[in-house]
Amino acid sequence: MTLHVGPSSSASDSDALKTQEVLRIYERYAREVVERFDFCPWAARARREGSAQPRVLFQQDLADFSASLRVIDELSEAPRVQVGLLIFPCSGASRLDFEHFVRRLRHADAQRHDPSSIPFAMAAFHPHAAPDLEDPDRLVPFIRRSPDPTIQLVRHDALQQVRGDATGGTALVEVWMLSPAGISTPEEPDIRDRIARNNLRTVRDVGVTAVEAVLADIAADRAESYARVGLTGA
Question: Which of 166, 168, 173, 201 is deepest in the core (most CB within 10 A)?
Answer without folding.
Answer: 173
